[in-house]
Each structure stands twice: as C-alpha cells, then as structure tokens.
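Intended use. Records like the one below are meant for learning the mapping from a protein sequence to its folded structure. Do not use them to infer anything beyond what is encoded.
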Amino acid sequence: MGEVNMEELLNCALCPNICRCECPVLQVSGREAVAPSGKARLAAMLQQNQLNWDEQVLEAVSNCLGCRGCTIYCPFAELSLCDELLNTRLTARASGVKLAVTDPYISNLRSYGSPYGQKNWSSAAGEKGAEVLYFAGCTSQANHPSAVESARNLLDKAGLSFQMIEEDCCGYPAEVWGDQELARQLAAENRRKIIESGASTLVTNCPECWLTFTNRYPLWGEELPLEVIDGPTYFLKLMKNGYLKPGKSKFKKVSYHDPCIWARAAKKVDQPREILSLIPGLSVEEPLSYGECTRCCGGGSMFQLSFPEKAAAVAKRRLGEFPDQATILTACPFCREGLLQEGRQVFELIELLDSVCE
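Structure written out for the chain above:
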C-alpha cells in the first residue's frame, strides 16, 4: 500500500468547494459527477487506474466548458482544472473510448479543415504579402460571416493593407475531442500557410484561436514566428491612433458580455470597454457578472456541438444577468451564437464598430 500524502489529502478534505457556485455545467445539470471536485475525483481515479474508461465516465469529465470559473474562488493558485481534465481526456482515445457525438465533427475536420463540414466560402482575401494577417476562425467563417465582413471593412476604413489565408481550423477542437494528432496536423498546416504569407502580425477576434496560437502551438512544436494580437486590443489601437473615427451608434443602451478566455486567460477586460467609451452617445450598462468574474455563455470547449442542450441551458442562465432592453455585445463567435436566445439582440463588437466608423 502506498503512503498517504496527508498534505494533498487535507487540501482536498478541507477545501470548501466554493467553486461549485461558479460551475455553469453543475448549475444546469445538478449532477455531482460534473461538479469541479467530482470531475477532479474521476480524473484522479482514472490516472491512478482505480477506474476504467467507458463512455459514461468520458461524458462526465468532458462536461467542462474551459471557462475557468472554478478558479475565481480556488485556493490553489497553480491548479488549472480545465487543463488537467483535458490532459486526462486525451488518454481516453488510447483506451479505445470516445464520445460518439463528436465523430462527425472529427470527420469534418479531417476532410475539410473545419468541424462544420464542407467549406462553401473563400477565406483568402486582401493583399498578398501584406504585413497584417486577419485570421477569422472556422466558427465565424461558417456561422457568422457578417462579423468577418465587418473586420475586413474596418481594416479597409483604416486604410491598412491586410491579407487573409485559406484557413484551416486552429486545431483546438480536435484536441478537445481527444485527437491530438489531428490537432497538430491542422496546426502544422496553418503554420505553413502563415509563414508563406510573409505577414509580421496576426490579428484574430476568436479567443480560442488566440489562445491556441499563443499557448498551444508552442506546446505542439508549432510556434508561430510573428506577433499574435487579439481583436479588441488591435482595433482599440486603430481608434486611439486615429485610423478609425467612430460616430454615433443606432443603439442607445448596450451591455458587454466578457468571453471567458478574454477575461480570465488573456486578462482583456478593459479594451472592449474603452472601445465602447469612445463611441459618442452610447450608454453602457454592465450585466450582473462581468470582467474577470464573468459567467460562461455555454460555448467554451466546443460545448455547443458536444452537448447542445446543456449549452443552451447555460446560455439561458447567463442571459438572465443582462439588463432588459439592452443590446448585448461580445467579442467571441461562440458567445454570440450561444446568447442568441430569448429574442435578444446580440452582436459582435466589431460589427458595432463597423457600423459607427467612417
């Protein structure tokens, strides 16, 4: 019998598990197995061979949005439960266990470089060889092309030369669904195209793409040899430097939803609000939870595709925190899709900016 690690045992035994209050999946399902500590216990048992993989266990440890809400009250500063759960799930495929619901999306990624199926768009645009490369991401390309068009319009209005490549998915969805080999193949293909573009700056408005390019690609051996900038920071810089001049908005009152990755992983909560402050006559009213204490829309970690009913329930819960009659703005394609319920108006921040800039 191994020696008991009393320090770790007491850490767990004495932890008040306040993280339960901030786990969106637990709030809508009520299942102890998908509470942060429940998933952690399952992961620990799997790692120690005290539990065997099956689809039911995989489903439980996959019930994580990657929103990092559990970190708000966590007393263990070094713990990233969403990463530990992801690393644990990657061992499931080696055991021959996978979620059947993800098979069509994995197949689409292999065939088309997008989880959404055959590409019926051309993502290449702009001026070949331009220093700025705009990376839209597969979700915007497939489901929200108006936001891509707004980004292109803003770069044109700023008088900047830019380019877009024939994108493949950044690769993160493949990793989320357990196929790390496919994730790295997609990363390698994107890296090749990005290097061949000759660009020195990559701008993306997708938080998961940004996190994948900046954090995951180096871990996968595919580090990008150029600067990667998030959309809110980049477009704010254009406004402050006078390249974009905003006029009055048709919306009187707006409320900004902080995407979890921008808020907690990237610490980008001030830039979107500064953009809104520079638009004349715009009234901004915060939702109940905002900034680094934002609550998830249900779209993180491809949850909308893997568990659509739970994702919709998480989004509905989040919508209840916004002021009535306010137009909801966000800076994430997943968040926009998730919050489009209950008859609410939801737009991406770049769409608003495009509508008010000369």
